# Entry
Amino acid sequence: MAPNPGVILPLTSVADRLRESMWRSANDKRLKRLQRVVDAMPENPPETPTSLDATSDAELAGFLAAAGEVAGREVGLDPFPNQYLAAAALLRGFSIELATGEGKTLVGAMAAAGWALEGRHVHVLTANDYLAARDADWMGPLYRGLGLTCAAVQADQDLPARQTAYAADITYSSVAEAGFDLLRDRLAARPGDRTGARREVVLVDEADAVLLDEARVPLVLAADAEPHRDEHALALAAYVRGLEAGRDYVVAPDRRTVHLTDDGLRRVEDDHPGRDLFGTDSEFLVSLNLALHAHAALERDVDYLVADDRVWLVSGSRGRVDRLQRWPDGLQLAVEAKEALDTAPGLQVLDQLVIAELVGGYDKLVGMSATMRAADEELESLYGLQVAVIPSHLPCRRTDHPTRLHATSEHRDAALADLVRDSGKRGRPVLVATQSVRESERIADLLRGLGVECVLLNARNATEEAAIISRAGEAGRVTVSTQMAGRGTDVVPSPEAVDAGGLLVVGVGRFPSARLDDQLRGRAGRQGDPGESVFLASLADRLVTDNDPDHPEPAVVDGGGEVEQCRANRRVLGVVDHAQRVSDGDQRNLRWLSWRYGELLRRQRAHLVEVRETCLEGPEALDRLAEHAPEEVAELDERVGEDELEEGARLALVAALDAAWSAHLGHAAELREGIHLRVLAREDPLTEFEKEMGAAYQGLSGRILDDAVAALLEAPVVDGRLDLESLGSRIPSATWAYTVTDNELGDDFTRMGRALRRRIAGRG
Ligand code: ADP
Ligand code: MG
# Structure
């Protein structure tokens, strides 16, 4: 398959159905085998086991019985049969799909205890710090009852606290902290500066969200670089301010995309006569587009805040200022320039990783979530996961209604208001889920304007989110939230709410994949509760306009603008499903592509990390330098002591290696940003990228050795002593950890790239 970011791979529904049926039959056999283990559990659980061989059926059955007994006694939760089944599946290496509210926290803890008893260290990764602390606290008594220790890593912990947390048998942490700790460990100046984390077994909660939806979000470790003014960016920011909206550029109604019109392009060309915008200066056009995006699509105090001479991003899906988030570099710079910040604190990226690299560093990876099956093939091909679907312990009583499609978004909003008002009157709790902060605010305003009281969930922290979501099941309560808010928290309907029909979940527009729709639906009807879910969509939804713009028009709509479920509308009623399949395929394609782009760098990094480790631990650094520059090293050897030279060589080499890697990453980022323009030259961008980065890497080791020798020679020697401090200070320590934002902008840039390509192709 040729990697081409513009090609969409639609999945035909026939292939989907075929896959589904094959999958089910395989799954049944797996489950039957595990069920026999659960059936064999002894009536009287054995004494607390001190070790476990989970490959033996009898031992596994015995362990499950003992763990269940301890869970009942110490945590107050007697596992349901399906929880035993799920824990057995995890211990046999399967990842599990188990519905929301079925108790995955306990299941994961039983499995984690099992691995720990096998003598392996376990990391349980959660969505955020709050959940890591909550789960470690909640499950602590189970572990202790089995003679094991557990701890949680938190963002504000210092190194000694982290070392303690990682020394426990089972360590809970957020995905982000686990990633940052790996990055910091890889950059430690001394062996003792590492967290000591042993990466053996990793259990990922909400695995599809982490491994797929957030797969392309890099975790970054950076050093604060010298503040500087970027005159070029400032000039661009000033220039785009002079462009005219509507004539020179168009902003999409939802303000998520901006693009130059043909008039605008002509004007830019006229204003920059010396530039070959569609040839050698195409990078200029990219920066200009970024400046335009910052100017026209991003709003201060909505999308970002300015404080302490810095731009702070308001996370799109979560709706809070996230100190750990930045936009991709070019956009961050453009926004800083727009705000004419005196200091544009540029960041020097020291190292970065994506989730795949993090979880790939463990001996064993398993995941759990309520929605794995829909993506099982991708999870298997990218991560080698095998998914087992565990039945819920009571039959699901939730009613999932077909999507209600409306001709326009106004019609959709009116239908939403009616639905929410009616349900509220009957004392029924409603959870309205939107896809962005802006949308959630708009909907909350709309409802309040109609006299419907509602709680808006955004711009808060994880603890508050959990508190709000946990009250979303109270009778008559209306909660408006973004999709990601309050993850990991159960919505329990109150008794009156159950009488009124349980929680009603309403999605405003369908999500970009069916799996995300299912994540939302799962909020209702947990553990056999009644509940309902429905999506209100419109033909003006971004999902439709982006992915199926040439759809047929409805033949019949009712008085409220709803597309009626009738034969004449058969084709238009399928539009949303079709758009979603296209979008899902597009997302998969992007994930696959960014996986491929990352592959080479991951291999290069792994190799360098290995070299770094051996240099850090032993005398190898000096050996390498002596081999590379025998004369210079011999000369130094005469002037300073052997031990000191060894230490100096180690410091110099590690510093040179880190600097070289940082520069290599910078080179890769630049190359990657402009690489799609290579399509114009009929070159395959991925091949070109790999060729260039491969060549760049070839020269790297020589340069590292040169730099290290030069640094050693430059280091002052006083009274026969080498100034180790000056060598050590070359390793940057003021580091800043952040993730590059995972909001919609990433996709917009892909789209922007495509639009640009189309335009340029049109001129060729
Ligand atoms: P999930 O992560 O699968 O959505 P949680 O682990 O958050 O589910 O658990 C959901 C709720 O079910 C919690 O309130 C928990 O106390 C409860 N629960 C879990 N297991 C049991 C059990 N065996 N018996 C009774 N309640 C349970
Ligand atoms: Mg959970």
Observations:
- The CA atoms of residues 240 and 292 lie 6 Å apart.
